[in-house]
Every structure is written in C-alpha cells, then in structure tokens.
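Re: the request from the purification team.
They wanted to know what the chain is likely to look like in 3D before they choose a buffer screen. I agreed to run a prediction and write the result into the notebook, where they can find it.
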Amino acid sequence: MSDKVPWMACKWTAELMKCFDLTFKGDILPGFDPDQVRANLAELFQINDPLVLDELFSGDAFILRSNLDRKAAADYFRKMSERGGKAELVTRVVSELSSPEPEATAAAMGAEPGPVSGSTEGMSPPADPLLPVMDDTPAGDVNTLELVEQSSPEPSTPSADEVIQRLQQLQQEAQAVHDDKLEQLQTLQEEIKQQTAEQLESIKQRRAQVLLEAEDTKTQLKDLEQEKERLFTEQIDRITEQERALSDTLEQAISSLATEHSQRCEAARLSCDELQAKRQQCRDDAAREIASLEARIAAIRKQCEQDVDSMDRLLTEKEQDIQEIEQGFSAREQELKAEHQSELETFSARREEHTREFRSEQEQLRQRQLEQEIEHEEMLTGLWEEEEKQQHQAQARLQQLEITRKRHQRSLEQRLDRLRKEEEKVGRGELSLT
C-alpha cells in the first residue's frame, strides 16, 4: 500500500424528502351509490379489467399511487372524495442522496464514473399501482456514506486514529438513529394500546346502555300489558253489570205480567161465580113461583130457558176469553223469554269478541316484546363481534410494529457489523477507498 493516499473524507449527505402513498381499502363514503363509485374509480384510474376492480373493493388495502408529493397527493385525495371513495394518505420518508461531483471523485480514485457506492439497505423501488400495502412504515430512511474529494491544494494522508474516530462517530450516530426509531415505535405502541383500551371502554359503555334500554323497554311492555288487563277486567265488569241490570228488568217485567195475569184470571173466575149464582137464583125463583105461576109456566119456562141459554153462551164466551187471555199472556211470556235469551246471547258474543281482541292484543304485545329481545340480542352480538374485531386489529398492528422493529434492528446490526469490519481493516492498515 502506498505511503501517500489522496486525502478523502467521509461525509453524510442524505437529505430526507417526505412523499405520500395513496391507499384504498374498498370503503365508500356515506351518501354515494356503490355501483357509481366503482364506475367513477374505474374511469379515474383507467381500470378496464372487472377482476382487478373486484379485487380493489375486496376490503384489502391497495396502493393506488406511490411517491406523490404533497400537491399531487392532495389532488388525488380530493378526486377520490368527489367520486365517493374513502382514500388514505400514508406518509413515506425517502432518502435523497447528495453527491456534488461523482465524476471528479471517480477520476481521483482512478475508476470509471458510475453509481456512488454506499448502503442501499431499506431502499425499495416505487410501488406499482394496485400493490397491496405490506408495511406502513417509511422506507428509504437509511443514510448513505459517500466519499468526496477535498479541494485542498496539498492533500495529506489521514491517520488511522482519525479514520477510527470518524467510524466510531458514525457508529454512535447510527445508534442514536436506532434509539430514536425504537422510541418512536414504543410511543406508537403505547398510543395503539391506549386507543384500543378507549375503544373497548366505549364498546362496554354502549353495551351497558343497550342493556339498560332493553330493561326499560321490557318494563314499559309489562306496564302496557297490565294496563290492558285492567281495562279488559273493567270492561268485563261493566258488561256483567249491564247483564245483571237487564236480567233484573226482565224479571220485574215478567213478575208484573204474571201479577196482571193472575188478577185478570181472578176477575174472570169471580164473574163466572156471579153468573152461576144468578142462574141458580133464577132457577130457585122459578121453582118457588111454579106453584103460583103454573099458568104462566110455559111462557116463563121458555123465557127462562132462553135466559139460561143466553147465560150459557155468555159463560162459554167468558171461558173462551179467559183462555185467549191465558194464551196471550203465555205467548207474551215466551216472546219476553226469547228476547231475553237473544240479548243474553248478544252480550255473550260481545264478551267473547272482546276476549278475542284482548288475547290478540296480548299476543301482539308478546310478539313485540320477543322482537325487541331478538333485536337487542343482535345488537349485543354485533357489539361483541366489533369488540373482537378491534382486539384482532390491535394485535395485528402490534405484531406488525414488532416485525418492523426487528427489521430495523437487523439493519442496524448489519451496518454496525460493516463498520466494525472497516475499523478492523483500518487497524490492520488495509483501508481501501476504492
């Protein structure tokens, strides 16, 4: 190795540039038609394949555009929102390497101009459209070590101690960057845990509120059922009271008719007795006057016989009248009984109808109560499923963060291993800048 080596320096020239990825998970904004949203997004991104469009709305996250600057990202986000798609912007920090004179550096090292050597670990090419999102962490934030020729008129050879000191300084800076990344990951994990706990607490409160509402609804239904039973009982009592009053009225009418019938029958019997007494008196008078009125016996007998016949006819007519009166009272009694029976049947039918209506309303109330209970069970099931889904998402997010932390740790270990190897080479005097 030559004693004189052109004096070179190690310089960090990585400049961080913030870009954005436009991602879409198939969600649709409220108030938009799903079919119209599919057609709008197919027109916006010129998607002609129905299978690709179905995959886009499958629920998985896809990167529609990557490495967008702030203006382009805002423009795409606005277009997506106007067309009904719920897009998300994921921040990506990209390292932009700075090499002022790569040709001069290569010429000083005796090599052809070409790409600047350095660490490219963690760099990834721009994502293709519709590429599933595998990691939300920024890519390409790895500092690149670059050798730059100094413009000193008299180059001198750096000592091994200076090179070792510079490498140690670079190692400390890399360790500090790694510690910052770990601290950010831990902070993000704590925030996710806190958000998950808050969401679980909110779900528990909603579930308790739903249970309270179910209890209130059940109490209201029970009160309504008791009120219906009370009204039904009052209505039955009122109908029973009306039946009792009508029955008393009919009994009074029947009793009055029976009394009147008895009075008329008694009057008819008295009239018959009087007629029989008169007939007997006439016969007695005729018998007493026979002796004194034998001359007039023929005429008087004829007259008496006529009178007797007339009285017999009157008696027969009276008896017929009595029979007709009795038949009339019997018919009237039958009619009253028939009317009473008809009204009783009417009241019975009305009572059965009210009973059926009450049972129908009671069955409807029970059906409504059953539907309310089923609905509350479905709401509780949905809340439990949402709670499990939130827990699964939180676990998946934590696992993803753990994978990212391990990847960064491996990257740092590899860089530290390279730095140790270069330090050993410097210590052995085998440093090569080519």
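For the purification team: Residues 297-428 form the longest helix (132 residues).
Please add any questions underneath this entry.
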